[in-house]
Structure to design on (424 residues):
């Protein structure tokens, strides 16, 4: 497991209410409330673990939206799976590494890509195995899993649903103010998934606040 | 989780050598050695957990081949997954239940179905998630995973690779001397997978013994 971004700004585990099974973004991240500079500094931040599942590399990235709405990368990297290793042993490593990342970086939610097309049945089975174990790592740590289509992720980060991996990597680098692009692209894809969740939660909660 | 067959014949955990990561059936289950009645009673038995992965029901069955080559069912049943439950919670239940079954019935190996055709991509992803978690449950308990195609499983149990679920259920009932057919069919499919592994291991080891 390779990870970068440093550990600056690590904090204690969020309170139980923030790790609750039910989403409560509408109260926590209301866009109307946050736009008020008088109170924005007192609002909670949001920390998300994005996972890009793959049968060779599984990317991960923890992104935090701070109380003043800045996006900060806490860690990113990829779990490399040695070819020739039995699948069960690969899955064991993914589970152990993701569980360790969750314990260390304390995200409040896990976001993963929801893929259900453009690949064949054999690849889908392999990818599904990794996805299952990633979802289990989240659930075992008491975290919800949010799923986003590749179109939603690219639209949220690049503004164009058919963007390629290189474009996603460049935009992730700019949005998070990184010194160099995250490597491999599985890591930048994972960060993009986390950013997508933060954007989506903010939009949902703005809408919820307006509808009240 | 529903299980039947009783707990008769439960024994202590097999020694570490039998739970080793490397297969050593050739020495343990040599067909030539076993055919000698003078020593067959002193030979080890073999206990296999078969798992039939599914996104609604995940069947399981523990089959033991005793030292005198009888096939005995130690437990069988199915883990039912409530529709409407989030996938991550379903996977958490499957993992917990399978881990508990492994701890209680102490199989030496886990056998699962290797499916890679005849289903669409969406189903393959769902099935893959359950498979991944089942394989992780095995690996976390220090057990190897053996995979068999549906054709191999049906051929080993019914003698016909295109047999239907009802035929598999009937043959499993006869082979294991059960009072009634295992229910649901996911449970009988899981027992069939375990029986397939026992047959295959016996054949492999007979061949290995002859080749020596």
């Amino acid at each position: 497991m390779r990870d970068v971004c440093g550990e600056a700004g690590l904090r204690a585990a969020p309170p139980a209410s923030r790790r609750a099974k039910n989403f409560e973004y509408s109260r926590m991240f209301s866009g109307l409330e946050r736009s008020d500079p008088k109170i924005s500094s007192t609002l909670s931040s949001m920390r998300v673990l994005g996972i890009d599942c793959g049968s060779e590399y599984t990317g991960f990235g923890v992104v935090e939206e701070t109380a003043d709405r800045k996006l900060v990368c806490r860690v990113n990297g990829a779990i490399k799976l040695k070819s020739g290793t039995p699948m069960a042993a690969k899955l064991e490593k993914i589970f152990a590494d993701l569980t360790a990342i969750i314990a260390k970086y304390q995200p409040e939610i896990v976001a993963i890509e929801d893929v259900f097309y453009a690949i064949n049945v054999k690849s889908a089975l392999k990818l599904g195995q990794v996805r299952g174990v990633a979802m289990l790592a989240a659930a075992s740590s008491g975290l919800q899993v949010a799923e986003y289509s590749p179109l939603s992720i690219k639209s949220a980060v690049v503004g164009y649903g058919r963007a390629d991996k290189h474009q996603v990597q460049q935009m992730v680098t700019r949005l998070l103010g990184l010194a160099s692009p995250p490597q491999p692209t599985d890591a930048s894809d994972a960060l993009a998934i986390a950013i997508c969740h933060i954007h989506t939660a903010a939009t949902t909660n703005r809408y919820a606040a307006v509808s009240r």
About this structure: The longest strand of chain B covers residues 71-80. Chain B is about 45% helix and 20% strand. The interface with chain A takes residues 86-89, 91-92, 95, 115-117, 119-122, 124-133, 135-136, 138-140, 144-145 of chain B (CB under 8 Å).
